[in-house]
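Pasting as-is:
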Amino acid sequence: MAVPKKKTSKSARNMRRSHHALKAVNWVEDATTGEPVRRHHVDLSTGMYKGRQVIDIKE
């Protein structure tokens, strides 16, 4: 079984974990509806993406 030779310092441990933080999601205002939407995602309420209809929405 592998056993570390030296104790990992708090600094080294925390530097290794620096990429584990959650990233903030970038929201933008939709050009047609004015609602906040995620970039590069289809707007599920209208079915629009980049100004064109890509999903048929049931009413």
